[in-house]
Amino acid sequence: MRFVAEPAFVLHARRWRETSLLVEVLSATHGRVGLVARGVQGPKRHALRAALQPLQSIRFDAVQKGELAQLTTAEAVDAAPQMPGEAALAGFYVNELCLRLVPRQAPQPELHSAYARVRKRLHSGEMLAWSLRRFERDLLDALGVGPGYATAGNGEPIDPAARYRIDPEYGPRRLDGERSGAWRSGATGLALLALAADTRPPADDVASLRLPLRTVLLHHLGGRGLKSWDLLAELGRLEAR
């Protein structure tokens, strides 16, 4: 298989041997693709190294003969977004989600578009927590495992005044008992409806989505969490921004 001027976003790059890189990208028409970029450490290859930084939008040519494609050329489409510390950490989280959940060579054009949107939002300074929840929703939907947010698992409409946990297989389940810890950690119905309508709710409602959506993500991650979750917990700031 040949890739010719394939649009993609760089998810991850790490050194391999003395002069090469192993690169993971999210392409527009082929989904996640693993690339071997050989001989990128010399002074004449600075432009190529710069194009292979995480979050960079690129076009690349490559030849696939095995699991990994051999990169022949890559060029940056635009300048890599300059993000402050918290937004950069959010970008690391987005990339880690894609690396862990998106299979290789599975076309995901809608996910490529969702990645472009969240990249723009992180750069523009929009509310980080809301940007991340929207991307989590879009990622799950693109993978065909989104739980739905306007209707509970039993078919009843979501009550904006109620709270819900999200069962990965069943969908939203209404919680009873305002004094219980489970009730306090559930998503508000208002937040779920806002997520379904893609309209940002108040900050407290946005914050209520984090743990229920994480439960769904953790299920599809096979119970093994993300490194970025630990970093986010240490900062303890993105949930309310």
Detailed description of the structure:
By secondary structure, the chain is of the alpha+beta class. The protein contains 9 helices and 8 strands. The strands form 2 sheets. A 5-stranded mixed barrel has the order 1-2-3-5-4. Strand 2 and strand 3 form a beta hairpin. Helix 2 runs parallel beside helix 4.
Features:
9 helices; 24% strand; alpha+beta; elongated; 241 residues; 5-stranded mixed beta barrel; 3-stranded antiparallel beta sheet
Write out the strand line-up for the largest beta sheet, numbering strands in chain order.
1-2-3-5-4
Tally of DSSP β-strands: 8
N-C termini distance: 44 Å
Low-confidence stretches: none
Assign an overall shape: elongated
- In helices, the fraction of residues equals 25-40%
Order of SSEs: EEEHEEHHHEEHEHHHH
The mean pLDDT is 90
Specify the oligomeric state. Answer: single chain
Q: What is the makeup of the main sheet?
A: 5 strands, mixed, barrel
